[in-house]
Amino acid sequence: MFKPLSKTEIISNASILFAKEKSTATMKMFVYVALMALVAISHAMTVTKMETFPNEKNDVTCPDKSTCPDGNTCCELAEGGYGCCPLPEAVCCSDKMHCCPSGYKCDVSASMCIKGDHILTWFTKGPAKPVPVVNDVTCPDQSTCPDNTTCCEAAQGGYGCCPLPKATCCSDKIHCCPEGYKCDLSAGLCLKGDDILTWFTKYPAKRHAKSTPLV
User: Fold this and answer.
1) Cellular location of this protein (predicted)?
2) Which CATH number is correct for 60-127, 1.10.3470, 2.60.40, 3.60.21, 2.10.25?
């Protein structure tokens, strides 16, 4: 394997050649060219290439909050939900299984994508990444609190969310305490034997609009 020469070695070798061939102009030119070539090779062998990292891709969010990879198109599936067409800005076919490139039309009977005289085999959709499961806590009035919280009645009516799981709801309907603790309303504390904690304040639960019945 070729071992790059150091600058000292290159200059030393060149000096020896010049000393031996002082009277030959052609040899001097040869040595000069060889010297430049060796310097270039030595430099090239020691250059470290910088690694290039691709840009992070942004997922495409479908109407039901599921996601497809960047450069894909969300298309409805026959069984419900959405799938991913492996094309950007694609045309979703009415069979809800296939898709075509932008500008093409789906020929469902021929299983083709058509654009004038251009005919392509249509594309099959892949599954979208499911919507993350959020386990909200449903309160008695159908309002909701985030997972690992507790629904407690609110002073103004309805329910609020105590930021603790299985919490003790205080009778002032504003505060709450951890499971197993009692509310000390006069001191504003949570008590459990010798353990004393500052009580927690509830925040409003998420209210949901009532659905309109179909006529």
Assistant:
1) Secreted
2) 2.10.25
